[in-house]
Amino acid sequence: MSNLSLFIAVATAIVFILIITQIFGRLITLIGQPKVVGEMISGVLLGPTCFGYFLPEASSYIFNPAVMPYLYVIGNLGLSIYMFLIGNELDTNVFSKKLIKQSSIISLSTILLPLILGAVVSGYYFDIFSGGKVSSKFFSIFVGTALAITAFPMMARILEDRGLLKTKIGSLIMISASIQDVISWVLLAFVTSIAKQEGYLHGYITLGGAFIFILLIFLIVKPLLKKVGKQTEINNVLSQNHFSIIVIILLASALITDKIGLYSVFGGFILGLAMPKNPIFQNEIIAKLKPFTLAVFLPLFFTFSGLNANMLILSKMTYFLPCVVIVSLAFASKYFSSLFSMKFCGYSWRESSAVGGLINARGLMELIVTNIGLMYGIINKEFYSILILVAILTTLSATPIFNLSIKKNSKLE
User: How far apart are CA 156 and CA 121, in angstroms?
Assistant: First the structure.
């Protein structure tokens, strides 16, 4: 395929994806769901579940193998940028010791129970759902990790749509979700290192690398960026040179966290947290990055992740009961552990339920984990499809649970 033909093929796929995600994104809002949920569902429907099943020739033409790597690169780049924006917009002034302590309690409780249930699932279903590359012990760790993961990017979108991102509760949820997902990715690094026959060392490198990366960002990069923030306030505009430097650091952060075994979203998010919180600087960053990221980058990421999901596999009765059991355990393990840990921290039952509903959402982070599991032979395609269903159902339930938990015309603080 020539360069011109490749450009036409990639551009065609992008235009098609943006049209479909816009349609589903708007439709889903009619039933009270966030637009992001429609974008995720449209990604699944564009895969072999619907579009690839009914129109296989058209699907092969639009999503041909030559196009897919480019969609992957663009989509993941967009997700890293978006999480950088989320970190940039979070009000770190509310990150009190009490809030961090509460977030840690919630995080540990919502990780421990899924890990325990993962071991239970492994004991019953290892023979029918294992990909054959790891033992039952590491399979159970993977399942626990998949059940413990939280839809970090999607949760950020939901909170942002609700105007809760800069509130105390919003910050509590984001800190808790980030802790949960970092721990989950470290556990995943151990499992994939075993699957790739790299040994335990890779997991320890991931843990140590994450700690060193955070120190470098906050001890070295943050002071330098503080000077950029002050200069921006003086000039009332972010210069092109300073903006270029920030973009370079952002891409480097995403690359580093990918290399050490964590996902690139954490590189973007942690760098965003270290950004100066000067209003003019924040607004300049948002104006330069946010519109295009939301309109183009994120829909491509959602679609690429959904293209590998084939929900038609679940029509086989052999997998119906295990599917019901796993979906039920997935929901209960996150929602109830979050509910009771929030109540333990002094929040009302309604606040606890609302946060439990949001933290229970798996979203695209679940899709990422399941793709890794399938790629390295940890799980098979049947279990992959069940986990995709977990991602969809828990995410769809987040907004209804939130709305039912909070009284009409009342707000979380």
Answer: 30
Rounded to whole angstroms, how far apart are CA atoms 37 and 206?
Answer: 31
Rounded to two decimals, the pTM is 0.79
For every residue of 370-394, DSSP letters joined together read HHHHHHTTSB-HHHHHHHHHHHHHH
Under 8 Å between Cβ of 200 and 261: no
Shared domain for 62 and 201, answered yes or no, is: no
Tokens coding 380: 């098979």
For residues 177 and 151, give the distance between their C-alpha atoms in angstroms, rounded to a whole number: 8
For the purposes of burial, counting CB atoms within 10 Å of the CB of 211, is it exposed (0-12), middle (13-18) or buried (19 or more)? Answer: exposed
Q: For the chain, what is the domain count?
A: 2
State the CATH number of the domain containing residue 302. Answer: 1.20.1530.20
**How far is 67 from 6, CA to CA, in rounded Å?**
7
Tell me if residue 281 falls in helix, strand or coil: helix
Read off the pLDDT of residues 2-58 as tens digits, 9 standing for 90 and up. 889 999 999 999 999 999 999 998 999 898 787 878 888 898 899 888 998 899 999
321 lies in some domain: yes
How does pLDDT run across 114-153, given as a tens digit for each residue? 888 877 887 788 888 888 877 888 888 888 888 888 877 6
- What's the rounded Cα separation, in Å, for the pair 48 and 66? 18
- CA dihedral 82→87→89→93, nearest 10 degrees, is 170
Nearest to 358 by CA among 395, 304, 389: 395
Residue 300 has pLDDT above 80, yes or no: yes
In angstroms, rounded to a whole number, what is the distance separating the alpha carbons of residues 80 and 297? 10
